[in-house]
Amino acid sequence: MRIAATLAAFFFFINFAVAEKVGCPPREKLMQSLKNTGMVSVYRGWSDRGHITEIWMQLEGDGGAWAAVVHLPNNHSCVVDQGIKATLQLSGKTVI
Asked: What does pTM read for this prediction?
């Protein structure tokens, strides 16, 4: 039973490491890919966790595609979430 658990953990960590490398390319490569799909940066902020979070959106068309990107200190960036049917909420908003 211990051997099975050790092997499962081993494969999990290897797969996690590979996914991390594939999912977090160099920053410039990911930014160019987002621009090539017609997305523009609409929000950027410093996280309390020590990285920059940026929201990208397709402003043209009806799809409203968006992506949340985390920029890490090692100059790699990760898409941490994405979706469709996004709308900008800043128009006409006031600070409370």
From this structure: 0.68
